[in-house]
Structure formats: C-alpha cells, structure tokens
Amino acid sequence: MRARVIDTPWPVVNSPQGTTVRGGLRRLGFEEVSDVRVGKYIELQLEAKDEEEARRRVSEMCRKLLANHVIEDVRFQVDVADSNRSHAAEPTTAG
Predict the structure, then answer these.
(1) pTM, rounded to two decimals
(2) Which distant-in-sequence residues (6+ apart) come within 8 Å of 5 by Cβ?
(3) Superfamily of 2-84 according to CATH
(4) Where would you tag: which of 20, 47, 53, 56 has the fewest CB atoms within 10 A of its CB?
C-alpha cells in the first residue's frame, strides 16, 4: 500500500519559506500572489494486512514523527495497491 502525507503549517504560524517564495514570485511579476504556505509532502510504501491497519499505522507515524501537531495540520490518504480507491483522512489539529 502507498500512503501520501501532506503536512502544512497552521495559518497563524509564520512560514519563512513561504515568505521567501512569495517574494520571489512577486519579483518575477506574479504580483497577484498575496500569501504562500510551504509544507511537506511525504510518500510511504508500506505493508499492512488491510487498509484499516495501514491507516492506523500511518496515523501513528504522523503523530510520533512526521508532523508537529503543535503548529501543523496533517492529512493523509492510503491507496490500496489492488484497487483504484483512496480514502483521505480528516486533517488533525492539536487540541
């Protein structure tokens, strides 16, 4: 199975990379860009007995290593290799 994880900073958290990218875009003539948020995209190939186990394990990976839940939102999808289905998880937030 393949999992795709997308991790983005909260809107209230400063994104220095986003500020740099926005400045570069504006210098290149893309004045319409008012904000840029830079996050992470992580793709994992994993073995699991079923989709439920894969989702549980990826969620645990996100919680323990892949995301900082204090300042980032994370969402993921698990693609089952032998079908065209994918299921997106709800974004998680620190609460």
Answers:
(1) 0.75
(2) 40, 41, 42, 43, 44, 58, 61, 62, 66, 67, 74, 75, 76
(3) Phosphoribosylformylglycinamidine synthase subunit PurS (3.30.1280.10)
(4) 47
